[in-house]
Design brief:
Chain A has about 220 residues and is an all-alpha fold. Helix content of chain A is about 85%, strand content about 0%. In chain A, α3 packs across α5 and α9 runs antiparallel to α10. Chain A is elongated, with a radius of gyration of 21 Å. Chain B is globular, with a radius of gyration of 21 Å. Classes of the chains: A mainly alpha (about 220), B alpha/beta (about 280).
Chain lengths: ~220, ~280
């Protein structure tokens, strides 16, 4: 059941050329980008309310911490019943996988904005939306970025699991197809693609983003 | 009188849920364009008073008026220079300085021109596009002074602005601050625990007593016509303030180190228990 290296590379090359793998990549990336974006927005908004209102913190804040410990694939059976076995269910678990982590990180980012920055802004007359946009958000950027990184990892795993079970195209389904056809070279090709995408996003996109912010802020010295 | 502080009372609730009186019946008048310092031992409520004037905090009772208007919230006519510069690390020096002007809805070009002028006044023209982490402590504090001055405030509130700096930098900034004050005629309300600094810079030194914070004495600093105070006068005034503060310092130390501690050197402290009945 172990295909040769040349066979794997051949399938990988053909898959990329014929569009079978490229199409699946496109489909998966489209889903995760949509789900991830929704999760970031919802996470920031929930984080804002938890930070701003004590009552929300005592109620919703606690629930979020509990929800965060549920692996997102656990939501899948519920999602299938609610939305059916379709794209929407996969999108749901991708989103929910990232939302809670994002919420927790956004909350702690907002909470850790130094009192000094807040006082300075108030002295110059900043308040409301302006205060949020020019002080609270930028000051919590480092924490938000590390939140993004974890949130991405969660939704990437949720996406693969969802596609594997739910179908509807994408890399996960291609894996499942390879399994049912007994085509191990295809399975391993897809695994290689998954690893490459994961590495690029984590080590190139997020690491670079984090480093640039840290250098700009003076937390880390330029190498 | 320009800045009037009347019958200010302020208390806090501490960790042990006790009510602690921080300021007790503060009355103070400050003339327009003057330079007033407040000195006192740590914890005497001098910073609290500054926050009240800034509008960052509210008094329990009493009122603060600037030019007849009641202070109720922070405003760009009363800006604060904090102990730490508090520059936003995500903005360049120029963007930090124009932060307040943008809030005033000043046109971008005008704001930039103004900021560049003020940055020139604090000798930072070369660092306009640097980020705060690229500057030294003294430079950061100069940016934060520029950020305050660019607002053309009526009152500049300074909360121990130089206490985190090294001696040389502090001396340079003293001179620069005096130059700026003479040039702009801004009223300066300066908090410090450094008596020499207060005497060197200001026209009037307000000495605070502690627990609860109240004004013990107001000491004018005599200056010559050219604005320079002779060293003998400075030293004399310094000694006078120190002797007033001595009791206060002793009060703080006794609370920290126990009742038999004595700070005064010219007075041998003896507790009752060590007194062999000489009073009989």
């Amino acid at each position: 059941m172990f295909p040769s290296l040349t066979q794997v590379l051949e399938t990988l090359f053909n898959g990329l050329m014929s569009g079978q793998i490229t199409l699946a990549i496109g489909k998966s990336m489209g889903r995760i980008l949509l789900g991830f974006t929704i999760a970031i927005i919802v996470g920031l908004i929930l984080g804002y309310f938890i930070w701003r209102y004590k009552l929300v913190e005592d109620t919703l804040g606690f629930v979020v911490t509990a929800l965060q410990s549920i692996p997102s694939i656990v939501w899948f059976p519920l999602a299938i019943i609610w939305f059916g076995l379709n794209d929407f269910s996969i999108l749901f678990i991708v989103t929910i996988g990232a939302t809670w982590t994002m919420t927790v990180n956004a909350t702690s980012g907002f909470k850790n904005v130094p009192q000094l920055y807040q006082r300075v802004a108030k002295v110059y007359g900043s308040s409301g939306i302006h205060f949020l946009r020019t002080v609270i958000l930028p000051a919590s950027v480092p924490q938000i970025i590390s939140g993004l990184r974890i949130a991405w990892a969660f939704s990437w795993r949720a996406l693969m699991a969802g596609e594997l079970l739910g179908g509807g195209g994408g890399l996960g389904q291609l894996l499942e197809m390879g399994r049912s056809l007994g085509q191990m070279d295809l399975v391993i090709s897809v695994m290689i693609i998954i690893a490459i995408i994961g590495t690029i996003v984590d080590n190139v996109v997020f690491s670079r983003l984090e480093r640039n912010v840290e250098i700009k802020w003076g937390i880390r010295k330029r190498a | 009188m320009y800045l009037t502080i009347e019958k200010i009372q302020k208390s806090f609730v501490n960790d042990r849920k006790e009510n602690v009186k921080v300021l007790d019946g503060i009355n103070l008048n400050v003339k327009k364009g003057s330079f007033v310092s407040i000195v006192g031992p740590s914890g005497c409520g001098k910073s609290t008073l500054l926050y009240l004037v800034a509008g960052l905090d509210k008094a329990d009772s009493g009122e603060i008026r600037v030019d007849g208007e009641l202070v109720s919230k922070p405003g760009p006519e009363r800006v604060v220079v904090f102990q730490e510069a508090g520059l936003f690390p995500w903005l360049t020096v120029l963007e930090n300085v124009t932060y307040g002007l943008n809030l005033k809805k000043m046109p971008k070009e005008e704001a930039k021109a103004k900021a560049l002028d003020v940055l020139k006044m604090v000798h930072l023209s070369k660092y306009v596009n640097s980020y705060p982490h690229e500057l030294s402590g003294g430079m950061k504090q100069r940016v934060s002074i520029a950020r305050a001055l660019v607002m053309e405030p009526d009152i500049l509130l300074m909360d121990e602005p130089f206490s985190a700096l090294d001696e040389q930098t502090r001396m340079v900034l003293h001179k620069e601050l005096l130059d700026i004050w003479r040039k702009t005629k801004v009223t300066i309300f300066f908090i410090t625990h450094n008596i020499r600094e207060a005497v060197l810079l200001s026209e009037e030194v307000v000495v605070f007593a502690t627990r609860p914070g109240r004004i013990k004495e107001i000491i004018p600093v005599p200056t010559m016509k050219d604005g320079v105070t002779p060293d003998s006068v400075t030293l004399n005034t310094e000694q006078r303030i120190l002797s007033i503060l001595q009791d206060e310092i002793e009060k703080v130390l006794k609370e920290e180190m126990g009742d038999d501690y004595s700070f005064k050197t010219d007075h041998l402290h003896r507790g009752d228990s060590g007194d062999m009945g000489s009073h009989i």
